[in-house]
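Hi, here's the filled form for the chain we discussed.

Project: internal
Contact: R.S.
Residues: 309
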Amino acid sequence: MKFLKKASLAAAIAAASISAQAEMVALDDATMSATTGQAGVTIEIEIGGSGISVGEIEYTDEGSVSLQNLTVNNVTNLTQTIDVDASGNLLLGMSGVTGMQIALGDTAADTTGQYSAVALRSTAGETTELVNNLDMTLNLGASTTTIANLAAAGNAAALGITGDAATGSVAILANTSLEITDMNVGAFGYTVQQAETRADAAAYGGNGNGVIDGAEQTTADALANGSAVQISGLKFYGTGGVGTAATIEQTIWAKGGDASQGGGVYIQMGQIAGTLDIAGISMGGASIGSVKVSDINLAGMTQRIYGHN
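And the returned structure, exactly as it came back:
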């Protein structure tokens, strides 16, 4: 959703720029006075059943990690607001969304296993699969994000920003809530190439001639569309039980300099409170039971993210 917020803001700024260039009109004092204290911008977004999709997102260091076949759909009545207050803080708000669907990798409609939710790739292009599929349905609660102008006198203290966060140029305060009503994941699978290699191998019933025939193709498709570990019916909900949202609060800031000087991006969890409930876990096609982790609270945890050689 952060991507949507940034994209929406960029679109609004671009539209304003085009309009300003099309017709520039001098404003008198009375008109200028009337503009003071006006409300900000409201943006309404609808993503229908066909949704939006991204073929692949690839992060490359030497080898690479890729996320394939990302889809987002069933987003209705989503409203975003953009305001700037007197202290120069950028205020972003978002209404709640019910029944939002997100998926990565293979889907139920794909029988050939051509996608990986998370794939690992060498510099030579050799690819293996870490996560075969991931799909979830979730409810997002209303959220607020403040990008704080820490140059404004007293602003950090007024917003409760202390320590290293208060020394940055900006800090981002995010408050949201969510409930995952259903999530399914398959891990440790095969890419299409790996599945065909195994299906053709004599040790696994193939003819070993390097050519995938009908029976071998059926085996290969099943392998490529499966995974060694399967998690089904995962739910994440608030401390009030199923039907309530888990709350998430965090503060994000950055420090300049290299890693030895404390440089990097910091993420401090103000709160993340909820219950993780997994209906079923299977390994090698056999169920090993269910898991429930209650009353999770990660308040006070701080992460520092920086590059390394």
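Let me know if anything looks off before we file it.
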